[in-house]
Amino acid sequence: MNDVMLFVPELWVMFGCLLLFMGSIFNGSGRQARTLSGFIAVGTIILTTFSLYLHGSLFFDAYRVDLFSQLFKFLVAVGLAVVIIFDREVKTVAEEIKVEYYLFLFLSALGLMMVVSCVELLSLFVALELSSFALYLLVPMRNEATGVRTQMEAAAKYIILGVMATGVMLFGMSYLFGLTGTTYLAELLPRLHGLGAQPAAVVGIIMVLGGFFFKLGLFPFHFWLPDVYQGAANETTAFIASVPKLAAVALLIRVSALAMPESQAVSGLLGALAVVSMFYGNLLALVQKDIKRMLGFSGIAHAGYVILGILVLGESGYAASIFYIVGYMVMILAAFLVICNVAVQGENLLVEDLSGLYKRAPVLALVLAVAMFGLAGIPPFVGFMGKFMLLTGALQKGYLAVVIMAAINTAISIYYYLSVVRVVYCAAPEKADTLPLGSLVQAAGLCLVLIIVWLGVAPDFALEMASEAVKAIL
Amino acid sequence: MDDFLIIKDGVFPILSSVIFLPLAGAMVLLLSSNENFAKYWTLLVTVVTALISLQLYFGFDPTTAKFQFAEHHAWITFQNLKINYTLGIDGISLLLVLMTTLLLPLCVLGSWRYIQTRVREFMICLLIMETSMIGVFVALDFVLFYILWEAMLIPMYLLIAIWGGPRKTYASIKFFLYTLAGSVLLLVAIIALYLQNESFSIPLMMGQAYSSNFQIFVFLAFFLAFAIKVPMFPFHTWLPAAHVEAPTAGSVILASVLLKMGTYGFLRFCLPITPEATITFMPYVLWLSVAGILYGGFTALAQSDMKKLIAYSSVGHMGFVTLGIFVLNKNGIEGAILQMINHGVTTGALFLCVGMIYERTHSRELADATGIGKLMPWYVTFLAFFSLSSLAFPGTNSFVGEFLILVGGFTKNKIVAGCAIPGAVLAAAYMLRMLQKVVWGGANNPAPHGQLLDLNLREIATLAPLLLFVFWIGLSPAPFMEVMHVSVAHLVDQVSNTVPVQAVTMAGLMLP
Description:
By secondary structure, chain A is mainly α. Chain A is built from 20 helices and two strands. With about 500 residues, chain B is mainly α. Chain B has one domain (about 15-505). The interface of A and B includes residues 411, 414, 415, 422 and 464 of A.
């Protein structure tokens, strides 16, 4: 009985998926599906909050429930709920597949909630694929713009590259299994240590990490990212840009905490990938006109920042990474909240389309400006505090060059974030209308702004929480 | 902590209230949409802030170099980071804080009619600026300092980008990029200092024995950030653009307060934290200062846009300030601090004057404002006094400052100081040229655009306090000088008790 309690949040989401499945069989309407989803999402938040401090293991120790996993489940639930709240009616998804849209959204979230608990390679793989396959299906669910089938192109790229990354990850897992004879992360570490500096072990670990890098969008596993951001519906992009990255960071931390060899080669490689990601993402974001594509490239750069925390291979570094990715999730959700609501027809927005937003929707303008300054890492927002923690940790370990590169990237990235703020506040509006906004959307936006500022000026609570969570797995 | 801070328990926290009152005022403005209320409310908030800050002067103890009115609370304790909320002022920051709080009501008055659109948002930006500016001068924790230092860019950017002139986009982005690029390495240096000291406390970082290479690395990171903010030649190119495009209040804040943060940074961080490196780099900085003085003077001479003229004159004046700081003796540094205040008063006033003409003629060109002496006698009277002050005419405030700086300069290095002298002559040339054109013009002055009414009571009230300070400091500088004697002497001690780094060690700029 007690064991079931540990699994309640996941069971609740499964139950929700079943309900949505029923809805799809009996031709439920999109509006019903949305109401139901909102209900399930709020329920998930409540359940994950209550199960925050549970701990134990399930399924022959392949599935561990600890503060770390529960914290991430809570965050996934929150991210999911925000996405569902702010897209009032997923405009670009055809009415007849709306129920399925929500079904796959929840299936993906379910996969992500499970994957953060997995401590065994095969179950981890299955949970990750559950979430990935749902996402592959979500991407093409968008009405065709005339003559352009970007959503199909995006979906094709996503699935082909995704399956390739999966293959690489499986190959790496087979190496690890071949070397150690176990798939349990907890047993992997001591046996790998026994092997000394065995190159196959390093290769295996890096290949497994490659699968997670794909989710995170780190260079050189980023190729899907700009196209998928551009091709998928705005709401789908909001989800892909925020929640799966959380899970990717959780996995990275879990695996590197348990099985990362203290090797110069691995940390050198991670540092190089981080720096290349930052430069690549920021430099290419400079020239983007489509705002989702721009955020895609900026996401690659932010993935680089997160790696700085993993590089440290210690509690404070992991905690800083968690803090950073949570802050990133909040900021990117705030940005997408604005994008989804400015794009009245659900179309892709160019940066210029935001001209004069301050007149059309002052609240959204404020939310977007705060999100942009936050993403750029300007204090007093969470982006700065996260970056500060990451840089402090990395410098403590002596990665001076990497830290300087990261600092320089702040200066590069400000240009494109600033150009968004500029059109929002300084350009004359192209359309004179005021945007129709629900009060729920405005309230959600202001809440996100408050969280961005709160985490930026009083990060202690969140950092301690992240640190506690990391302690639970070390 | 007691070694550096004078904390009195149970006393009204003046510094915190001076910092947060404007912010609270801005929050109130968020709730109202009445533009007139926004003006009066902002004026009220800034005046009250100024009145509270006067307490700092009267309660200041000029006999100690410790930080007074100190407040110390734990802020971020995660993982032994020990980031604190530490505030305090000494003789170096006291006058700067007072200048900031006293200028802000004048900025509000100066924008009363100049700002016609989005008044409420403008006032919110002004108030947030005030919070962060005061915070920068009183923060004694490096993270707190850095947060305020960077956060200030956002409202300043908006001030230029929204209410600025025709090239506001270019000017505002250049301002933001330039200053941000300068301060990213500052952050790395701060973290490196933390790793050495296990603390972010600024007073604790002073006077520690860091290795020479480390000092050079830190000094260069500091220098880049502060030299851009001052701005020192050759990092000055953002300044004319930003000054020219910013609205009057923005120009005043930029010239009077923001530029001072760079020189304040030199005094507070470069000199006491990296004294060896300071001495090593001193000759180069001195020559850069001289270059700035001469370059600013010559360029100002060639301007036809009044705002640009004053902007370039700022480059020259700030060159004098950095010269005074880096001669590293008591006269030089005291002169530099006084000159920071003088420049704030005088240049702020000049920008207000140009703004008043602009409100009437919608042009800043000298050619459009010639010979207005007979139309606006009050205006040209003020303008004349401020111009004389700007060229350091004896009896005005700048004379005292420049004199002290040059005295310090001549005791240190006669050649450098001698080279700076033409700068004073140039200042006379460009200021008198402007004054002559504006007051008298030529034989056939063009008909003025629009109606040129003389100053009204509000405008006189805006300029009169500044004029008071021009003469007060000029004729009786003692009340301003005596608060800084002890602090400056302490600072000079901190620097002179070290040996210069050999130039050879500069080859490897590595962390120890």
